Amino acid sequence: MTKQSAYERARDERIAEDAEDDRALMCSAVGCPRRWSVSGDRGRACSAHYWAERADWPRITEAVLRAETDRALVAAAKPVAPVSAEQKAEALAALAKFAVLVRTGQIRGALR
Ligand SMILES: [Zn+2]
Question: Do 111 and 102 meet the contact criterion of CB atoms below 8 Å apart?
Answer without folding.
Answer: yes
